[in-house]
Structure prediction request, 202 residues.
Amino acid sequence: MGEDASGSPRLSARLLLTNRLSVHYLRRCAGSVATPGRKAIVSLQISQNERFQQREWRLERIGWVLVGAFALAGLAGLLGAGPLSWTTAHSDAGLVTVEYQRFTHHEADDSLTLVLAADAAEDGTITVELTGSWVTGVDLQSISPQPSEERAVPGGITFDVAVERTGTTEIQVNFRAQEYGTLDAALAVRGDTTGFTQLVLP
Prediction:
């Protein structure tokens, strides 16, 4: 009985130590098997995140470049009013010059200027014939100085402006575009002609 009693604690201690060593060994084995897999998964996630961030930064830079390009184009007049938008058209004999913008916007207030030489007047009156798709594509708000007479002609209008002095005369035509796209106009003063084209944007 004494040997069994004295051996039982030693046997229990040995079994406990064996169990602990077994658990520790199994944990090490499990760790050695799982660690590369976890490292691979983490590495893959990091790589995917880096590629996503690079694409996001690239798209963001492209977006800023486009915004800057549109802003510069707008300020320059490539998309509306601006220094690069203004231009002139001259008639062959030099009786009439048109100062206008290449681009205008739908339903926006706009204007163009007719600069008429002194020889454009006849008996104190300048007669301007304005025809083309521009005439039907815009709403003429006013003409200054106010014409003394206006007449409809095929494809457009003719108006007379009285002049009381010699020299250059400027006529301002105020309008609002009613159609989108390209609008063409032809002007004639005493048989001397010129024309212009405007692009109507939204």
User: Anything to note?
Assistant: Residues 9 and 15 are 10 Å apart (CA to CA). The chain is about 40% helix and 40% strand. The two ends are 108 Å apart (CA to CA). The first strand starts at residue 86 and ends at 90.
